[in-house]
Design brief:
Layout: H1 2-10, H2 23-31, E1 40-45, H3 50-63, E2 68-71, E3 84-85, E4 88-89, H4 92-106, H5 113-125, E5 132-136, E6 154-157, H6 175-183, E7 190-193, H7 199-208, E8 215-218, E9 223-228, E10 232-237, E11 240-245, H8 252-267, H9 275-281, E12 292-294, H10 298-303, E13 307-310, H11 316-327, E14 333-337, H12 345-349, E15 357-360, H13 372-378, E16 385-387, H14 391-397, E17 405-409, H15 412-421
Parallel strand pairs: 1-5, 1-6, 2-5, 6-7, 7-8, 13-17, 14-15, 14-17, 15-16
Antiparallel strand pairs: 3-4, 9-10, 10-11, 12-13
């Protein structure tokens, strides 16, 4: 109750949810003694794959007995997920006390909720100066609240695509503008660039960071991976190759994220990451709502023997890689879809033409989501499309046969509702 009350107060300190400006966060952190200057950090920017890359690094670092602090957004099930210190999430009381300290320092000055959260993370993380901080940047990066670090160990650029276009002027809704916003202000240290969806995007990133003096590592130039038979894959970089077991997460895109995580950790010599840390770590990745199979619980009981997956993909790039996994399966696929109103709904679903049924739903507790009926009307090119009010009703309505799978996707907010409901 205390945590809920203080969160409500903090959300009312600024009329806008997002206001791209670094002044407020810098002023608040100055009052706190600039805790961000005391951190050993790896910054993760990009459109897709940030969370998965962080979780892969976390799993490997734990095997190497290196403790981590982690800052991610948004959360899926509870706000506590955003605050990991010494390898553990803060509990409600710890988080409430931390927020109270930040609230007092801020003294009712106008500041966005995300900026408050970021200052809170920096302050708590500074209490663990020897830990490695894995910091996911938010919207675009250049004016993101996390972008006030003066130094870091590395910057990772994950896959970049078109998303959050509603925050850009009409004339600047381009991939080049997004790349500039995400990559033009990266710090001078190490930059690891993940596999991109096109050569044009890779070249644009290279051009944007051309004058950055960092050591640079590009997928397929400085590190790569290849699929092998007998349930393993092979990773290779300037330090040599490693035969690796298949990870405990599904999808080709996860191998790309894991390879980027490995490249980053091997680029930072102080970590002394050994092959066995990687081999063991990648089989213990904790990945919530990223092609996550629900194996038990209230919703799983409704599907009986059919597999049920939840995935938070919400932009075209995410849809593309998700569909690549679905296409590798020899079965009928049924999609339950809920999305936020500001997304490109038709572009997102254009990658899923080979699905047996599509059921649109309302996302509970999300006033900025598109209503399921409206979403159904927008996607009228799908032959077998239905609308149901609730997640449970949608699952019950699907005419599944043996080996069919059900996938709930379209929004991280929907994924959180699904997991909490289950």
């Amino acid at each position: 109750m205390k945590l809920r009350k203080i969160v409500s107060r903090l959300q009312e300190l600024h009329p806008k949810e997002i206001d791209l400006n670094l002044d407020r966060i810098q002023n608040l952190c100055q009052k706190l003694g600039n805790p961000q200057d005391k951190l050993k950090a790896i910054s993760i920017v990009g459109t897709n794959g940030k969370y998965s890359t962080i979780q892969a690094m976390f799993a490997i670092l734990k095997e190497a007995n290196i403790k981590c602090n982690i800052y991610t957004s948004p959360h899926i099930k509870s706000i506590n997920e955003r605050f990991v210190f010494n390898n553990q999430e803060l509990n409600d009381e710890e988080l409430a006390n931390l927020f109270e300290e930040i609230e007092n320092a801020n003294n009712n000055e106008p500041i966005t909720f995300f900026e408050i959260l970021t200052a809170a993370y920096f302050l708590k993380a500074s209490q663990y100066p020897d830990n490695i901080n894995l910091i996911e940047t938010g919207l675009f990066h250049r004016f993101d609240a996390t972008n006030i670090l003066k130094a870091n160990l590395a910057s990772i650029v994950t896959s970049i695509g078109l998303d959050h276009l509603d925050w850009l002027p009409e004339s600047e809704k381009t991939i080049e503008k997004i790349i500039f916003e995400k990559a033009s202000s990266l710090l001078n240290s190490n930059i690891i660039v993940a596999k991109q969806s096109s050569r044009e995007i890779s070249e644009s990133i290279k051009k944007t960071i051309l004058n950055n003096s960092s050591n640079k590592f590009f997928h397929n130039e400085n590190y790569s991976f290849t699929m092998k038979e007998n349930s393993f894959f092979y990773y290779e970089d300037q330090l040599g190759g490693i035969k690796l077991p298949m990870p405990n997460v599904k999808g080709q895109f996860q191998l790309e994220n894991i390879s980027t995580a490995i490249a980053t950790l091997r680029a930072i010599k102080d970590f002394n990451i050994k092959d066995e840390h990687i081999q063991q770590g990648i089989t213990k990745i904790n990945s919530i709502a990223r092609l996550q199979e629900i194996k038990s619980g209230k919703l799983k009981e409704l599907t009986k023997n059919n597999q049920l997956f939840v995935d938070g993909s919400h932009n075209p790039l995410g849809a593309k890689v998700l569909n690549e996994y679905l296409e590798s399966l020899n079965c009928n696929k049924h999609i339950i879809l809920g999305m936020m109103a500001n997304k490109d709904h038709n572009e997102f679903m254009s990658y899923f033409m080979n699905v047996k049924t599509l059921t649109t739903i309302d996302i509970p507790n999300q006033p900025n989501s598109i209503k399921g009926k409206e979403l159904k009307d927008k996607l009228n090119n799908f032959k077998n499309i239905n609308y149901k009010e609730s997640i449970e009703e949608a699952i019950r309505s699907i005419p599944v046969k043996e080996n069919d799978i059900i996938l709930i996707t379209g929004s991280l907010y929907l994924a959180g509702e699904v997991l909490n409901l289950n």
